[in-house]
Amino acid sequence: MKKTFKPFIKIALVVPIFMVIINCKSDEKKPIESTKIPRATKIDKSSFNLNLNLLLDLSDRISPVKFPNEAMEFYKRDVGYIKSVSSAFLEHLSKKKVRQANEQIELFFEPSPANSDINNLSNKLKYSISKDNLSKEILHEVDSSYSNYPLKIYELAIKDNNYIGSDTWRFFKNKVGDYCIEEGYRNILVILTDGYIYHKDTQLKEGNRTSFLIPQEIRKNKLNSSKWKEKFENQDFGFIKINKDLSDIEILVLGINPDSKNVYEEDVINAYWSKWLTEMNVKRFAIKQAVLPSNMDKIIKDFILDPI
């Protein structure tokens, strides 16, 4: 038996060695290839058409009297975030060829404020820019409008002192598809909110699911202990499901400001939002706590300018 298999063993050993020698010689003739993506296959991250929308929560969370902040008032943080959003929009436009330009930016509230001046100002923040109107003048106008009008909107809302709440749940139910999603665009919705949702006309409950979220509800449901997550998952807490397929939109939630009385409050708020957005098949989302605009600027621009 040993004599019978010796020739086969030799052949089996010689062939691989011979192939290795051939491969080594052929490799010597090839130049060392770069690990970088070839120029022809690189992704042009500025080539997409951008449909950028903002949803502002003008509830009492912006009140400098009710929720003062020594570092920076929360409405001023919002204004800074909006400026970063518009800067990202303009930066995206600056990288596009004129013939490719087809971008949109707009601002919404839910519900619309009773103050007509606020609504008039928001209308001035609606822009559709294409090859037909793209110019240095229009870019300057967008920059000027988003540098000035948002602050005036917040100042008017604070002066009115009529905080009717923010009906974000109903906005998603009835309007997000029509207002914020366009075919052929990269759709992004930036939501400025403290994370809580409340409106007097939308207080629905289905089991442990609700259309609203307030600190009192979190405390009442005892989601303020180290076992909050287990209870949240096992007892199916969260926002009421909305039968929407939002797989063609990305959502950036900014300004989460949890009640400091509960050390788990931010985690609970994030869980509510994450569960809700995931159930609606949102393509991509991020939820960020309220910080100074200078610290949020990079986060905003990375999200908007990098489609990943």
**Count of DSSP strands:** 11
The CATH class, by name, is Alpha Beta
Largest sheet: 6 strands, mixed
Helical content (DSSP H or I, runs of 4+): 40-55%
Which of globular, elongated, flat, extended, rod-shaped describes the shape? globular
Count of helix runs? 10
As residue ranges, the low-confidence spans are 1-43
What distance separates the N and C termini? 62 Å
H and E string: HEHEHEHEHHEEEEHHEEHEH
Q: Could you say what the CATH architecture is?
A: 3-Layer(aba) Sandwich
Average pLDDT figure: 88
Beta-strand percent range: 15-25%
What is the SS-derived class? alpha/beta
Radius of gyration, in Å, reads 27 Å
CATH topology: Rossmann fold
Account of the protein in words:
It is globular, with a radius of gyration of 27 Å. Helix 3 packs antiparallel against helix 4 (136-160). It has helices at 2-29, 74-94, 116-123, 136-160, 168-174, 176-180, 215-220, 228-234, 265-279, 293-305, and strands spanning 50-56, 102-109, 127-130, 165-166, 186-192, 198-199, 205-206, 209-210, 238-239, 249-256, 284-289. It has 308 residues and is an alpha/beta fold. A hairpin with a 2-residue loop joins strand 7 and strand 8. The strands form three sheets. The protein has a six-stranded mixed beta sheet with strand order 3-2-1-5-10-11, sandwiched between helices. It has ten helices and eleven strands. It has one domain (50-305): Rossmann fold (3-Layer(aba) Sandwich), CATH 3.40.50. The model is unreliable at 1-43 (pLDDT under 50).
